[in-house]
Amino acid sequence: MSAPRLEWTEGTAARDAAWLSGSGTLPPRRVQAVDDTVRADDAFHMACEGVGLLWRGDFQNARQLLQALARRLDKRAARSPLPDDMLMRERFNRYRQGQALRARVLGMVLIPLDAAQVIPLRRAPDVRAALHHALGMPLGDAVVSLRELQGMVGAYEWHRKGVPIAALGGATIHPDFGVFSPIRGEYLDLVARAPLPVGENAFDIGTGTGVLAAVLAQRGVPTILASDLSPQALACARANVERLGLSEQIAVQEADLFPQGRAALAVCNPPWLPGKASSTLEQAVYDPDSRMLRGFLDGLAAHLLPGGEGWLILSDLAEHLGLRSREQLLGMIEAAGLGVIERLDARPQHGKAFDTNDPLHAARLHEITSLWRLRVARS
Ligand SMILES: C[S@@+](CC[C@H](N)C(=O)[O-])C[C@H]1O[C@@H](n2cnc3c(N)ncnc32)[C@H](O)[C@@H]1O
């Protein structure tokens, strides 16, 4: 992996290091070395100006500084609350702008790493395994934002412990860094309970961790081809399939949407919101121009066996946010020559659905995740 370089002056010395980012964020243009003596207000001002604060003090104090910056952002946001009558779509745009600003400002607290990926700071944790998991090989002296580093450490913990999947009888799926993590169980339960069409094989389009292929295998589908475009997802799905002892039933294959051939069932869980991802980590949430949704629907007729079914998994959050209407979705289904056999619904159970402080609470409160059973309506 080649990383961009970060250049700065410290004292009178010109310095440079590799810039590590798992989300594809660019390095700050200006960098200032700071330590425990920096005042939080000054640090906030510099971070808002786009100055990277390269931490030279105690590691735990850097964590506290990050929290202090977050509190200042919260206070600033609380000073200009969104009007109650603001349209949900506009509210969502403002929410995304706020999230982007937060990521930019909090991303300015920077942590140095030596060539062995050790943090040369007092009271610093050992993050080598998490960094190696997220980014691969060491790159010599490097700098990473503390916020990203915390994300990598969290992702590594999920990877190590695994996510227990009720639809797999409690067996765990181990997500890799940057691969969509199946922490919302409701859509998995839908795939576990929808009536299977008659047939021997299935496609899992955009398999991610391989979780849906595993649920289908557990239900007895003899042959499953799981596709993805992301190299991390392909590696992650292969590892999960092997760990679960399902390699006889599931093959993981690189493909843009559909593998070659036809199947009795094709299942797809595309990103649920139409829109542009602002970092690589958002790619599992945002589907630019609904490309994956449309691609799945438009390709179904050519990839289903006679009597076969397509299972589209989609939440209606985009509808509550004003980003897509139900009519538009039904229009896409019809335009692809498909008909709806049945829709199975589930209510999300994840914590955010019940968080009244979430600015999108009103939309999330009404969110329903559906499995649309589709068939070819005309030949
Ligand atoms: C929302 S995630 C769903 C992952 C998994 N199926 C699940 O339900 O947990 C969407 C996945 O589709 C993959 N993807 C996006 N575009 C794709 C394409 N054109 N062809 C194949 N996979 C794609 C992404 O890499 C990602 O792994």
TrEMBL record:
Keywords, alphabetical: Methyltransferase, S-adenosyl-L-methionine, Transferase
Cited InterPro entries: DNA_methylase_N6_adenine_CS, N5-glutamine_MTase, SAM-dependent_MTases_sf, Small_mtfrase_dom
Keyword Methyltransferase carried by entry: yes
Domain Methyltransferase small: 198-279
One of the GO biological process terms: methylation
Signal peptide: none
Pfam families: MTS
GO molecular function annotation: methyltransferase activity
PANTHER family: HEMK METHYLTRANSFERASE, MTRF1L RELEASE FACTOR GLUTAMINE METHYLTRANSFERASE
Name of the featured protein: Class I SAM-dependent methyltransferase
Organism (species): Teichococcus wenyumeiae
Organism lineage string: Bacteria, Pseudomonadati, Pseudomonadota, Alphaproteobacteria, Acetobacterales
